[in-house]
Design a protein that fits this description.
28% strand; alpha+beta; single chain; Aminopeptidase
């Protein structure tokens, strides 16, 4: 597939096509509070860190969002245990305060459903790395959501993240793409994304009854959702895996 990769800063007229591109995210993941607050702002306030790929028919078939932030700022220094949520908060706090960023974090790489399976995610990761380098950064970090972990929701992420194949590469396909691109697996972010909602909301998102106390396995979830029927809510706390790309 012939691709043309651009940033939204270069091609602002493509905004609607980029943000409107179809995806395969499970519905519940769209209701993470940090994501609700900040994700859509990336395309308008940090458009130079939003990349998209067009095919030979000028159709947007993939996009990659990242954010610059100050990892080495006072009180930080370590990749946060709250992963994806925390790095979004840090990035927009730094932007608001005028703090000079020193690192870029991947936020998402999404391939349109009809274009999946052709290696586009790896190509967008490469483009994200190149974009960070072009902006003067020497490192990209990523709170990775392993692509096959949902098939093993009760396996501890600490075990899954470091599992390897006979060739020494990660067992998980998406982690494998990162490592092949030169990344190292740093640590598990145990509370990277959090979705707290009423039982009725969870029922609407999943079609499941959510009427029994305890752990509920949900399609697309990396770990079970904790259901509290007597209190009327359920909580999903998703672990991700921090990886580092030296540029």
């Amino acid at each position: 597939m012939e691709l043309k990769v651009s940033s939204l800063a270069e091609r602002p007229e493509m905004y609607d096509q980029v943000v409107g591109m179809a995806d395969t995210w499970p519905e519940f993941i769209r209701h993470d509070l940090a994501g609700d607050a900040y994700y859509d702002r990336i395309a308008t306030e940090l458009s130079e860190y939003v990349l998209f790929a067009e095919d030979e028919h000028a159709e947007v078939v993939a996009h990659a969002y990242s954010v610059p932030f100050a990892l080495r700022a006072e009180g930080r220094g370590e990749l946060p245990v709250r992963g994806w949520d925390e790095v979004l908060v840090w990035a927009f706090a730094d932007l608001h305060r005028g703090t000079r960023p020193d690192t870029v974090s991947a936020i998402s790489i999404v391939v349109a459903p009809h274009a999946q399976g052709g290696g586009l995610s790896g190509r967008m990761l490469s483009a994200m790395r190149d974009n960070a380098r072009a902006h003067g950064f020497d490192e990209v970090v990523a709170p990775v959501r392993p692509s096959a972990k949902h098939l093993e929701p009760r396996t501890a992420m600490e075990e899954y993240a470091f599992r390897t194949r006979d060739d020494g590469l990660p067992y998980d396909p998406w982690l494998r793409v990162h490592v092949r691109a030169g990344a190292s697996i740093e640590a598990v972010a145990p509370a990277s994304m959090t979705v707290v909602a009423s039982l009725d909301e969870w029922r609407g998102w999943t079609g499941l009854p959510f009427d029994a106390e305890g752990q509920v396995e949900v399609s697309g979830a990396l770990v079970p959702v904790h259901c509290e029927p007597r209190r009327g809510y359920a909580v999903y706390v998703e672990p991700n895996v921090w990886v580092r790309h030296a540029l």
